[in-house]
Amino acid sequence: MAQHRRHRTASARIIPVIAKAPDNPPMALLPPVPLSTLADEATAALQAAFGCTPVATAMAPGRVNLIGEHIDYCDGFVLPFAIDRYVVMTACLNGLEAIRVGSGSDKPGFQDRGVAVPGFDAWVVSSVPMGAGLSSSAALECCTATLLEALTGAALPGREKPLLCQQAEHAFAGVPCGIMDQYASTFGEKDRLVFIDCKTNEHSLVPFSDPELTLIVANTKVHHELSDGGYASRRQATETGLAILGKPSWREVTAADVEAQWNALGDPINRRCRHVVTEISRTLAAATALRENTIDELGPLMAASHESLRDDFEVSCKELDTMVEIATEIGGAGGVIGARMTGGGFGGSTVTLCRSAHAPTIAATLHDRYHQRTGIVPEIFSSRPAAGARQLTPLATQADSPS
Asked: What phi and psi, each to the nearest 5 degrees, are found at residue 390?
């Protein structure tokens, strides 16, 4: 879990407390850390660091985006799901005008709405890999907001929580992200994908309950830092392109419009624009395929999405391409339906949709061939769509897969 920037507030100063996290041994298919284990770890660390008993505990999951990349800030559609990797925070009131936060990592809103935030001590643990394109920052934001709801009694209804967390990402992390990550972490449900209309900020749930299908996430271990400018420059290119096209929204732009203005847009803005319009179409087609259970149609859509992100949007890298190439080599005969990079890019993870019976073999092949070709040991796990952010009780933490 990242120790994200700590900001002084009007009524409380934030004091970070750091402890080093243990390393995980490499495995071909890493099992999830049970939610109860994370909650117990956070409770024990809070008691050891601050000598208090928790009065509130919250969780929020990371996310994987099946398809719809870099279009959540372009009025597009996206199709993410919450994963069974979580940020857990637990806290006790300290009677001070200070917020002290401890974390197992060695890396470094409410008051704006008139809510009085009391001083408290908190500890953060996480099983969401950092810098892997799995929204560890959004999980931290949504978990923090959920914990503050518990501590203050001030609920954030409906879209308020993900929108507030998005503002935190913009203001404090310096990443001009769209709404997808925070929405998926907030509104995720077990065995459901979250289909989000990023123009209206409305969402619906798409079933993903077939036990014969598995989603494999492969962390390339090439870490990305979206605040270094690559993400912002892509967003700026889409805004410039839309202005040249003279349209009020990307929803009114067609592929023919982009082709007609290709020279006026100029390179690379023309390719950035082509990615946006084609990715919107692919995401709509993917959602339809899932709803109609025509799963094999997802393979070509995922392949085209990765190629567009690699060639037109230029946010892939050789390690992501290598992982997708290996999945493609395994192919349908080996149980692979489709594969693509997921997340903001510049490193991070891929997602592979596959037949469940082949998942262990696929994971082992991805692990071994990737290691052979890059010299990097990846982290690979499978996840079914999981539940979104919520407050935990001691009883609730006994369930490893909340719903």
From this structure: -165, 165
Q: Across residues 347-374, what is the average pLDDT?
A: 97
Q: What does the radius of gyration of the chain's CA atoms come to, in whole angstroms?
A: 21
- Of 126-130, 228-232, 298-302, the range with the lowest mean pLDDT is 228-232
Residue 15, amino acid: I
Average pLDDT over the chain, rounded to an integer: 87
Q: Is the peptide bond before 268 cis (omega within 30 degrees of 0)?
A: yes
Are 72 and 78 in contact by the 8 Å Cβ rule? The answer is yes
Catalytic residue (choose from 181, 191, 257, 267): 181
Question: Which residues neighbour 228 within 8 Å (Cβ) at sequence distance 6 or greater?
Answer: none
Confidence grade of residue 112 (pLDDT, cut at 50, 70, 90): low
And the tokens for 24? Answer: 């995980």
Give me 382's structure tokens: 């499978």
The answer to whether residues 376 and 323 touch, using CB atoms and an 8 Å cutoff, is no
Supply the pLDDT for residue 117. Answer: 65
228 tagged catalytic: no
Q: Is the pLDDT of residue 23 over 50?
A: no
* Alpha carbon distances (Å) from 16 to 8, 22, 49, 168: 12, 19, 11, 18
**What is the per-residue pLDDT for 3?**
37
Where helices occur in 201-297 by DSSP H, the ranges are 230-245, 255-260, 262-265, 269-291
For 168, residues 6+ apart whose C-beta sits below 8 A from its C-beta are: 109, 141
The predicted model gives 77-104 an average pLDDT of 91
Q: Is the dihedral of CA 129, 134, 139, 140 positive or negative?
A: positive
Please say if the pLDDT value at position 256 is more than 60. Answer: yes
Cβ contact 344:70 at 8 Å? yes
Q: What is the dihedral of CA 193, 68, 389, 59, to 10 degrees?
A: 110
pTM of the predicted protein model: 0.86
The DSSP bridge partners found for residue 340 are 351
d(CA 402, CA 392): 10
Let me know: does 245 contact 277? Beta carbons within 8 Å: no
* Residue (of 257, 219, 151) closest to 363 by Cα position: 219
